[in-house]
Amino acid sequence: MTEACLPACLLFEGVWDMCILCGEMIMTVHWTDQPVHDANYRSRKKIVAGEGQRERMRLRLRRVAIANQILSYYGLALKDWSGSKYMLFDKKGTSVVINDLGGMWKAASDLAHQDLDPLDPVFLKALRERM
Length: 131
Fold this sequence. Notes:
Elements: E1 10-12, E2 15-17, H1 20-23, H2 53-71, E3 76-81, E4 85-90, E5 95-98, H3 104-112, H4 121-130
Protein backbone atom coordinates (compact mmCIF):
# COMPACT_ATOMS: atom_id res chain seq x y z
CA MET A 1 0.00 0.00 0.00
CA THR A 2 1.34 3.43 -0.87
CA GLU A 3 0.73 6.80 0.72
CA ALA A 4 -1.21 7.86 -2.37
CA CYS A 5 -3.61 4.96 -1.81
CA LEU A 6 -4.43 5.81 1.80
CA PRO A 7 -7.61 7.78 1.01
CA ALA A 8 -8.88 4.85 -1.08
CA CYS A 9 -8.01 2.21 1.53
CA LEU A 10 -9.94 1.82 4.75
CA LEU A 11 -8.69 1.32 8.29
CA PHE A 12 -11.17 -1.03 9.98
CA GLU A 13 -10.56 -2.23 13.55
CA GLY A 14 -6.82 -1.61 13.24
CA VAL A 15 -6.50 -3.56 9.95
CA TRP A 16 -6.08 -1.98 6.54
CA ASP A 17 -8.54 -3.14 3.89
CA MET A 18 -6.72 -2.90 0.59
CA CYS A 19 -8.30 -1.11 -2.34
CA ILE A 20 -8.52 -2.76 -5.76
CA LEU A 21 -5.54 -0.74 -6.99
CA CYS A 22 -3.12 -2.28 -4.50
CA GLY A 23 -4.86 -5.65 -4.40
CA GLU A 24 -4.37 -6.11 -8.13
CA MET A 25 -0.68 -5.20 -8.32
CA ILE A 26 1.11 -6.91 -11.17
CA MET A 27 3.56 -9.41 -9.73
CA THR A 28 5.06 -10.70 -12.98
CA VAL A 29 5.16 -9.48 -16.56
CA HIS A 30 4.28 -12.05 -19.21
CA TRP A 31 6.84 -12.36 -22.00
CA THR A 32 4.34 -10.90 -24.49
CA ASP A 33 4.23 -7.67 -22.46
CA GLN A 34 7.97 -7.23 -21.99
CA PRO A 35 9.19 -3.76 -23.02
CA VAL A 36 10.52 -3.33 -26.53
CA HIS A 37 13.57 -1.07 -26.76
CA ASP A 38 15.70 0.16 -29.62
CA ALA A 39 19.28 -1.04 -30.16
CA ASN A 40 20.80 1.98 -28.37
CA TYR A 41 18.68 1.69 -25.21
CA ARG A 42 21.39 0.37 -22.86
CA SER A 43 24.03 2.88 -23.99
CA ARG A 44 21.86 5.98 -23.48
CA LYS A 45 22.68 8.40 -20.67
CA LYS A 46 19.06 9.45 -20.24
CA ILE A 47 16.19 6.97 -20.18
CA VAL A 48 12.63 8.30 -20.00
CA ALA A 49 10.16 6.29 -17.93
CA GLY A 50 7.27 5.04 -20.02
CA GLU A 51 8.85 6.03 -23.33
CA GLY A 52 7.87 2.74 -24.97
CA GLN A 53 4.31 2.79 -23.65
CA ARG A 54 2.69 3.81 -26.94
CA GLU A 55 4.40 0.98 -28.82
CA ARG A 56 3.66 -1.52 -26.03
CA MET A 57 -0.05 -0.63 -26.14
CA ARG A 58 -0.13 -0.75 -29.94
CA LEU A 59 1.37 -4.23 -29.92
CA ARG A 60 -0.90 -5.32 -27.07
CA LEU A 61 -4.04 -4.20 -28.94
CA ARG A 62 -2.77 -5.95 -32.08
CA ARG A 63 -2.43 -9.20 -30.10
CA VAL A 64 -6.00 -8.72 -28.81
CA ALA A 65 -7.25 -8.32 -32.41
CA ILE A 66 -5.46 -11.51 -33.50
CA ALA A 67 -6.76 -13.43 -30.47
CA ASN A 68 -10.30 -12.24 -31.26
CA GLN A 69 -10.07 -13.68 -34.77
CA ILE A 70 -9.52 -17.06 -33.15
CA LEU A 71 -11.81 -16.68 -30.13
CA SER A 72 -14.81 -15.47 -32.18
CA TYR A 73 -15.08 -18.98 -33.65
CA TYR A 74 -15.93 -20.18 -30.14
CA GLY A 75 -18.27 -17.27 -29.38
CA LEU A 76 -15.76 -15.47 -27.18
CA ALA A 77 -14.23 -11.99 -27.19
CA LEU A 78 -11.12 -10.58 -25.55
CA LYS A 79 -10.67 -6.95 -24.48
CA ASP A 80 -7.71 -5.10 -23.02
CA TRP A 81 -8.26 -3.87 -19.48
CA SER A 82 -6.22 -0.73 -18.79
CA GLY A 83 -3.08 -2.10 -20.39
CA SER A 84 -2.41 -4.53 -17.56
CA LYS A 85 -4.97 -7.33 -17.73
CA TYR A 86 -7.53 -8.74 -20.13
CA MET A 87 -11.26 -9.43 -19.95
CA LEU A 88 -12.65 -12.49 -21.72
CA PHE A 89 -16.38 -12.52 -22.51
CA ASP A 90 -18.83 -15.05 -23.89
CA LYS A 91 -22.06 -14.17 -25.74
CA LYS A 92 -24.11 -14.60 -22.54
CA GLY A 93 -22.19 -11.81 -20.82
CA THR A 94 -20.08 -14.00 -18.56
CA SER A 95 -16.65 -12.48 -18.10
CA VAL A 96 -13.31 -13.57 -16.69
CA VAL A 97 -10.31 -11.41 -15.74
CA ILE A 98 -7.09 -12.77 -17.22
CA ASN A 99 -3.62 -11.67 -16.15
CA ASP A 100 -1.88 -12.40 -19.46
CA LEU A 101 -2.24 -14.19 -22.78
CA GLY A 102 -0.71 -17.32 -21.27
CA GLY A 103 -3.80 -17.73 -19.09
CA MET A 104 -6.20 -16.93 -21.91
CA TRP A 105 -6.39 -20.42 -23.42
CA LYS A 106 -7.40 -22.20 -20.21
CA ALA A 107 -9.95 -19.50 -19.40
CA ALA A 108 -11.31 -19.60 -22.97
CA SER A 109 -11.65 -23.37 -22.82
CA ASP A 110 -13.52 -23.13 -19.51
CA LEU A 111 -15.79 -20.33 -20.77
CA ALA A 112 -16.55 -22.13 -24.05
CA HIS A 113 -17.16 -25.42 -22.19
CA GLN A 114 -14.98 -27.27 -24.69
CA ASP A 115 -11.37 -27.95 -25.51
CA LEU A 116 -9.93 -25.44 -27.96
CA ASP A 117 -8.01 -27.32 -30.62
CA PRO A 118 -5.98 -24.98 -32.86
CA LEU A 119 -5.36 -27.84 -35.31
CA ASP A 120 -9.01 -28.83 -35.72
CA PRO A 121 -9.62 -28.97 -39.51
CA VAL A 122 -13.09 -27.43 -39.20
CA PHE A 123 -11.68 -24.54 -37.15
CA LEU A 124 -8.80 -23.97 -39.59
CA LYS A 125 -11.21 -23.96 -42.53
CA ALA A 126 -13.45 -21.39 -40.82
CA LEU A 127 -10.42 -19.25 -39.96
CA ARG A 128 -9.19 -19.32 -43.58
CA GLU A 129 -12.63 -18.34 -44.89
CA ARG A 130 -12.72 -15.28 -42.62
CA MET A 131 -9.39 -13.94 -43.85
